[in-house]
Amino acid sequence: MFDRSLIGFIGICCLPPIVLLYNLPNLSLQWIIIQSGIFSFGAGLLTYRLIPTISELTSTANLTGMDLNKKGNPKYSGKKIPESLGICVSVVYLVCVILFQLFQWFSFPETVQLSEYNAALTSICFMILLGFGDDVLNLRWRYKLVLPLFASLPLLVAYAGGTSVVVPDINFPVPLREWLGMTFDLGVFYRIYLLMLAIFCTNSINILAGINGLEVGQSVVIAISIIVHNLIELTISPNSQQHLFSLVLMIPFLFTAISLLFYNWYPSRVFVGDTFTYFSGMCFAVVAILCHFSKTLLLFFIPQILNFLYSTPQLFGVIPCPRHRVPKYNPTTDKMEAIPTNLTIINLLLMVTGPLSERKLCIYLLIFQGLCSCIGFGVRYFVAPYFF
Amino acid sequence: MFDRSLIGFIGICCLPPIVLLYNLPNLSLQWIIIQSGIFSFGAGLLTYRLIPTISELTSTANLTGMDLNKKGNPKYSGKKIPESLGICVSVVYLVCVILFQLFQWFSFPETVQLSEYNAALTSICFMILLGFGDDVLNLRWRYKLVLPLFASLPLLVAYAGGTSVVVPDINFPVPLREWLGMTFDLGVFYRIYLLMLAIFCTNSINILAGINGLEVGQSVVIAISIIVHNLIELTISPNSQQHLFSLVLMIPFLFTAISLLFYNWYPSRVFVGDTFTYFSGMCFAVVAILCHFSKTLLLFFIPQILNFLYSTPQLFGVIPCPRHRVPKYNPTTDKMEAIPTNLTIINLLLMVTGPLSERKLCIYLLIFQGLCSCIGFGVRYFVAPYFF
């Protein structure tokens, strides 16, 4: 359960936020964030305690799955693993966020923007409901694609920010700023872009999956990246309320997701289900939209974007697409082998590295996710300032 | 499916709101309500179309139940009925309300109070999630009691109204107004009262159940009563925004619930599940709290209050409580017979009237619900003014 590399991974992940939090110049902000951390730690513990109980319930309800990547391995083969444990994580998360809302509202009524906070809660909660419904009822694709759209509408209504974008200071091939001005109002197209972002986030995590620990692991890396970004921004300009808002939503997400990771890490004792992937995707979309850092968020989604682009021939039916696009497990070597016709970056990585054990494969993919986040930060803080 | 008495019941129910709407003096209000009606009619049609599809999915997912009140009847016995169709109704409801929010915000941005609207959506959505989770996972009682509490917290935070109550003008046994003043501030106790109200509403509909059509039927009667109350208030004072807000939430509820009633009416082809009872209870609590008519709502809950009070010995374990407290079905006479040890008003009614067919029993209970609403209106508009 407490795999050494998992502990190391979590340790490395948590270091940057702690250092940044420690160096935060504004002490009252620091105090709010610490309180949120304490709440979230409690939520994480509760999740950790509840998962075994809830996994019994999901097993009884026949929400179980076979581990495809262990077929033929006598140690694990034929075991039914409880599915959809995302429901436990996400409900604890919602309760934690609601309680913190109550607490904040008693302590600092002026800092809470209720309409946005509640829009965020509505969208996330609706997405959890959809994900859980999908796990239980096995919805068809057309429903799956339409419902995230509705789930993100409350966000768009509550979105109080502008719809203008800053025009990059580029003179080649055309002098953009001379043509368009400093800022350019995209109007309703900006809202359509935000809608597409929400749909992309919820689905892109769902299709980079199938390896023990990968869904939750990548979500943890992205959550950490967002938290680090928020803390950097708060260090630069302590009055940016929206980054505090993002932190208050991301910190409980991080702690509850880590609790789930302990159970979902190789060899998985629970599966997370679409409930979790949809929930986490929506959480990221929500904070990026309401806190106005959608472009930065996309920098943390580089592996998901690559995976999506690489998958397009299968997703749009040019190449036949099996139900599960996981690599092939070889029980003799206990290693995963690439299936080159399954166009995911998981198989791509295996084609580069050769066969890997499932545990190592997940670790490599998470390291890749982390490296991409580092590149993202580089682009955001060193390259982007040249153009904006 | 289109039972004559069901059509009559719906017809009688819909008459008062139509007359009141027609006589509404403020034409722009009338127009908003008609638009909401058109939206909701579409939502009702969609629900009607979707229920067969979704009931296949719930059957496949093993969410089915036996109809206890037809045991031994060769025509129905042994048939498995799809359960939890509340999920279909409630998701369509949410989508409709969200779309109407978007539409309203484009048309009349100043009339929408976003924070309250979104708090309402959060609470309702969380309650649906809990209800569906309960149907799938069969949660234990302690979870059931705690979670509605959390689901209603966003409401309390968003509740912007006062916490004072008008003191009744009563001089016996003590001159209340002399002692307490015209109004009395209950402070935090008022919020606790609202919390208790939400928990009561969600659970009280759930325990007055077990007869084909009863759960949905009583919800329809209560929804109509609320709509009539809102329309009367809007006729008296056309500026009471909160009653418009309540209508915008209640009208789609009414239409989607009626669609479900067609399938749930005797003999039921689908069951509604805890998803529906929790969802409907929360909808009522939400509008009553945010629109400040909690006392009036309790007048429409008279049968539920009586049933709760009559049930207390079993609910608190003084008398043993079986899992289902329904009356006994007699296959020879095709009638329901009272079980006097099951303390519900359903059995009480059967003890008064003697054995009844399940269909008639439901109709009588709904007539009783309707009569209680009439008494409620009498108290609200003719008795209460003497004291306030």
State the gist of this model.
2 copies of one chain form a homodimer. The first copy, chain A, is mainly alpha-helical and 388 residues long.
Written description of the protein model:
The structure is a homodimer of 388-residue chains. By secondary structure, chain A is mainly alpha-helical. Chain A has one domain. Chain A has helices at residues 4-22, 27-60, 86-107, 114-137, 141-158, 176-180, 188-207, 214-236, 241-264, 273-290, 294-300, 302-315, 345-353, 358-387, and strands at residues 64-66, 80-82, 164-166, 183-185, 328-330, 335-337. The radius of gyration of chain A is 21 Å and the shape is globular. In chain A, helix 7 runs antiparallel to helix 10. In chain A, a hairpin with a 4-residue loop joins strand 5 and strand 6 (335-337). In chain A, 69% of the residues lie in helices and 5% in strands. A two-stranded antiparallel ribbon of chain A has the order 1-2. Chain A binds chain B through residues 54, 57-58, 60-63, 87, 91, 94-95, 98-99, 101-102, 105, 112, 114-115, 118-119, 121-122, 125-126, 128-130, 132-133, 136-139, 147, 150, 153-154, 156-158, and chain B through 54, 57-58, 60-63, 87, 91, 94-95, 98-99, 101-102, 105, 112, 114-115, 118-119, 121-122, 125-126, 128-130, 132-133, 136-139, 147, 150, 153-154, 156-158. Chains A, B: It is a multi-pass membrane protein. Chains A, B: Pathway: Protein modification; protein glycosylation. Chains A, B: Its cofactor is Mg(2+).
